[in-house]
Amino acid sequence: MSAAACLAAYAVTIAVTAPRILPRLTRSGIAPRWGVAAWLAAIASAVLASTAFVGVIAAEALTGTSAVEACEHLVQAFARAHSTPAAQSATTAVALAAATAVACAGVRLTRDLANRRRVTFGHARSARMVGRRIAGVDAVVLDAPERAAYCVAGRPHAIVVTSGALKALDHPQLDAVLAHERAHLSGRHPQVLAVVRALADTAPRVSLFTTGAADIARLLEMCADDRAMRTHEPRTLLHGLVALTGAGPVPDSAVGAGDVAVLDRAGRLASPAGRGDRVRNRAQLGAAITLLAAVPLGATALAVAGRMLCITTLL
């Protein structure tokens, strides 16, 4: 049970500490891509550790003691020497219950992702059927008074803009907003959001998932802003975002330009961070990513090395 205990402890530690540390590093939005990478590293580490925990529990439950496991049992013997049978039974019961909970969460997550994919693809297909094409507008136009522009993943993907948005935006602003939406699709942002939001729905009490999903959505909008600013003036994009603000939320399956953290994004567009702040923030986030990746990789390497040592000793 030592390996399972280590995996569980690591997952719990990440789930508790990451939502408290990462928002402080990503609040400014200075390096949004690094922020997204840090959040995804934390979420992936916790999910993989939990999945490995289930695998270890299943292996210990379904397989007997092998020669390779003998060394592990020697190490565990000292820890169990002074424990009572009741304590050992309670520990095993708790571990099995936790493994069952993780397995059930995996099933719910798979169903949620399948449902989101079905809804998203259906929305993209419906938008292409109902919408119309206008010369000079690289998007599907829907006749609606609301001011909205968003993208939807599908086969093929769809960028949707309403007739109300066309009236509110001039041509340079519209081009900047559409470049923002194309950046979402080329960066596969809808797919990333689908996964993290499905995790948040599956485990709504785990702040790593809920806080992470909200912050990743905000940071991905900033990533798309940065990509759009490569070909458009920041002020033009800023005016386009302001024109689309307050028109109501976009569909759940979509990613909209003027729907998430508009004030934060407007602030960074109007007053870009200095070079020193960018370097400092990237270094902090890089250190966090390295730590999150190094701990599970190091633990895995030690476990493999320990098993190899046991095999060598037994041979």
UniProtKB/TrEMBL annotation:
Keywords: Hydrolase, Membrane, Metal-binding, Metalloprotease, Protease, Transmembrane, Transmembrane helix, Zinc. It comes from the Bacteria. Its cofactor is Zn(2+). Residues 137-197 form the Peptidase M48 domain. CDD domains: M56_BlaR1_MecR1_like. The chain crosses the membrane at residues 35-59, 285-305. The keyword Transmembrane helix applies. The keyword Transport does not apply. Binds 1 zinc ion per subunit. Belongs to the peptidase M48 family. This is M56 family metallopeptidase.
